[in-house]
Amino acid sequence: MPAPNIDTIVSLAKRRGFVFPSSEVYGGLGSAWDYGPLGVELCNNVKQAWWRWLVYERDDVEGIDSSIILNRLVWKYSGHEATFNDWLIDCRKCKGRFRADKVVDNKCPSCGASDWTEARPFNTMLQTKLGAVADDDPTALAYLRPETAQGIFINFLNVQTAMRRKLPFGIAQVGKSFRNEVTPGNFILRTREFEQMEMEYFVSPTAEHAKLVDYWVEQYLEWFGSLGIDRENLYLYEVPKEELAHYSKRTVDIMYRYFPEREKPWEELMGIAWRTDFDLSIHSKNKVDEEGKRINPDSTEDLSYFDEPTKQRFYPHVIEPAAGVNRTVLAVLMDAYSEKTNDKGETRVILKLSPQLAPIKAAILPLAKNKPEIVGMAKAIKRSLQPVLRAVYDDTGGIGKLYARQDEIGTPFCITVDHQSLEDEAVTVRNRDTWEQERIKVSELAEHLQKRLKPYPVPPETI
Ligand code: ATP
């Protein structure tokens, strides 16, 4: 049973230290959120799981970390300056402003009227100025990147040559992106500052691109499964031709059931796009149009690739799986949410997070906090586990309360140190999902837990 709605997660997230509304002491900042002690761990675990899965376990993907602010020309030639627009409409009745493509049944989401102005474009790249320059100096204009992808394209040749790569291979990057969203909202689903996990997979122009899109869709469905997201809550949307971005010949969106309470419950979790050779060729100095004119007179590099077996030079095509960290975190939290009634009839929240994502893997709880020997032993166990897994010591309540708190934040194991432990050098290990308890020797504890905290079952196959 996943969370019944996003609001359930908003309140759990605030209560338990995952996500707080940003700038709350000044009344907040529309749709900005701060990740608390548990939220930062969860985000890091999602990013690490992704990096491990793509960059470490496959043999055909490299990682990079490019600048957030790039030369403005990158955004000129990528087409973002001209076309990275949302189409805005205003409600003539209540003056509300909305994204034309997000209005359902032509009704104003604020007042229900259907009297709209004409749609007009609004560029959603966030602007800034570089250096100590005059306010109106146009040469100082720069953008905060709206996608991490361009930082990968402009480094294609650097990575390919430095790492002596042959096609096909991918370059992965995770980091912040910024979009001046017209209607941000729904918690961390749509914000102006967010994090992306993007990978550009470079292939030959004669590869079977449509099939490669399917391949990456399958890979990601499996990966989301390994994070504990139920396949039933994912839906594939083949983006129709008329809705494709200017660089794409095919895009499949993986949607998640973020709104189970609504008639239309789906919203995009990620997209997998065949971006053709658009980006590499548009940033290249040698590419010419039909009339033989250079399409990019500003570029100093040619981002083409020489294919040794066929002795041909070409611009590789790209398959791009682009996922959001925050949307993945929200989907993971919603899918992990469950409730269970104990034998006293009380309903408890259990966050059944996949062990690899759980912010805390083990909580060490002393049964008697006024007994120095028990406290000492519990703290020593915490210290001994810490190098291998994230462990915490907690004695701030009775054992029932402590268990409930750890269940609610998704800690897979609670370890209780009691009077008996002082004699038999053993502790009670309680399982979050079954509430079953086992007695385990302290000397075998680390191995016992590690075996049960395996990242995920099947490593992906490399093509
Ligand atoms: P949408 O249609 O929902 O605005 P998009 O199609 O513009 O999304 P992409 O450009 O494909 O999004 O970006 C790739 C991924 O980055 C998205 O699938 C999503 O997970 C994430 N993302 C994009 N915009 C935001 C945002 N404003 N807040 C949080 N995550 C975002």
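^ adenosine-5'-triphosphate complex. Residues 147, 179, 181, 190-191, 194, 196, 268-271, 322-324, 326-327 surround adenosine-5'-triphosphate (CB under 6 Å). The longest strand covers residues 193-203.
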